[in-house]
Amino acid sequence: MRFLSRRLVMPNDLNFAGSLFGGRILEWIDEEAYIFAACQLDAKSLVTKHIGAISFETSAYQGDVVEFGLGVKQVGRSSVTLTCVVRNKQTKQNICVADDIVFVHIDPASRQPQPHGKTKEELESIKIETPE
Is the pTM here over 0.85, yes or no? Predict the structure, then answer.
């Protein structure tokens, strides 16, 4: 699992109980997973098809730095399936795990699925710089 990006939990990200709002973290997961998939496949024309099991494990609070770990789980002809772990940067505790995030590569004109031409082995061999 590669932890590739971080976000600071701000006041606007909180729910009524003062912890990170679940909807906000899901928004971040979708965005971070898209960026990862687009970089891995070297393609911009991706759409989110499915997000499977989501498990909220612990809370995050204002001022916490959360980081996103992403990994390729499966590669199809026109799709890629990812796993995302969101954890607290300081404590390393998992905040949320989203499994089976599926993106489909589409033709921009027809909006129909289009082969992306990558294999799981190719994607696993891509070197990505991680933040310090």
Answer: yes
